[in-house]
């Protein structure tokens, strides 16, 4: 008995990001990949990783179905520079101190559309319809501030957009804090 295979959709991908050797996020990426594959096998799954992610994890991610893309980390422009950071728990550097590397999503020019999901998320239903229904950029409105949650985003890669976002980040005012973490400012 052979199962029918879905036709590949090479212009669209799911993506996540790992920037540290935190095993919880690694395990999260494995679970996220499994949840994606339980609903959609037609699209690539791309895991952006920095040099801080152990080599053996990259192999395990590949076995789990992720295409591993090694990216340079984007230096965080606000975390650790704001007085607000002193109120965070010590482990928050792993959570907030690498957010700017999400900008690398806009450089994944192989794809026309990317549905980005933080490694600590899981799909509980089919999200494939979002690729066609959502036009332009989309993200969840945040509950506690007027910006958006960059943990789930639909975007169209573009080097020009990457450069624009990077210019905004370079002009960041210390003290704006995580609630306006780029790309949330745009």
Automatic annotation (TrEMBL):
GO biological process, one term: glycogen biosynthetic process
Keyword Oxidoreductase: no
Catalytic activity: [1,4-alpha-D-glucosyl](n)-L-tyrosyl-[glycogenin] + UDP-alpha-D-glucose = [1,4-alpha-D-glucosyl](n+1)-L-tyrosyl-[glycogenin] + UDP + H(+); L-tyrosyl-[glycogenin] + UDP-alpha-D-glucose = alpha-D-glucosyl-L-tyrosyl-[glycogenin] + UDP + H(+)
E.C. number: 2.4.1.186
InterPro entries xref list: Glyco_trans_8, GNT1/Glycosyltrans_8, Nucleotide-diphossugar_trans
Transmembrane segments: none
Entry keywords, A to Z: Glycogen biosynthesis
Gene Ontology molecular function, alphabetical: glycogenin glucosyltransferase activity
Keyword GTP-binding applies: no
Pathway assignment: Glycan biosynthesis; glycogen biosynthesis
PANTHER family assigned: GLYCOGENIN SUBFAMILY MEMBER (PTHR11183)
Protein family (similarity comment): Belongs to the glycosyltransferase 8 family. Glycogenin subfamily.
Reported function: Glycogenin participates in the glycogen biosynthetic process along with glycogen synthase and glycogen branching enzyme. It catalyzes the formation of a short alpha (1,4)-glucosyl chain covalently attached via a glucose 1-O-tyrosyl linkage to internal tyrosine residues and these chains act as primers for the elongation reaction catalyzed by glycogen synthase.
Identification of the protein by name: glycogenin glucosyltransferase
